[in-house]
Task: structure prediction
Amino acid sequence: MEKEETIIYFVTENIHKFNEISDLFSKTKTNYNLKRKEVETVEIQATNLKEVASFKLNSVKGQISGSYFIEDAGFFVDTPLNGFPGVYSSYVMKTIGNKGILKLIDNFDETQAHFTSVIALYFKPLDVSLFFEGKIYGKVSKTLRGSGGFGFDPIFLPDIIPNKTFAELTTEEKNKISHRGKAWSNFIKFIKENKY
Ligand code: IMP
Result:
């Protein structure tokens, strides 16, 4: 039987996110084991991701006895959509999807976009909630490309690998540069600096 103190739960219904975090976790030396947990969470509509993540983290309280984290991400088309869909990413993906985003920016040659990821952790040993953020900048592709990843991956061209969409990268390649990978590095830095 595993001891509760050695487990960190990732509360998510999104198997793609869990696979990405699992890949990152497998390359990290810590005293913990990672487990996925599906519990009821509350997602509010707010103006920034940290607020959404904080509310979601609090909504898990009392349902898990050890340490746990959630992750919230958003896709921001800075040019020409002034950051839309951002905190509305989930709704926009469900309604107009990637094709709808491409239609909205059809007449624009110059695009700029970024992803932001916020990992919100409840860390039992210190009884604190902590937030770790990561961003990646790039452009919007003219067409959907690639079959990997999920969500907006087929239309995002990261500046660092400008000829490939996120969906054309392997999980490992995406993790090395992605918003989630960067938020994860900050998370691990905290665990290591505190010798957990
Ligand atoms: P969530 O609220 O964090 O689950 O994500 C909001 C929306 O952004 C959802 O439609 C996800 O599919 C999408 N999304 C989240 N992370 C990523 C990513 O790494 N790549 C592409 N789309 C993402």
User: Anything to note?
Assistant: Residues 4-193 form a domain with the Maf protein fold (CATH 3.90.950.10). The chain has one domain: 4-193.
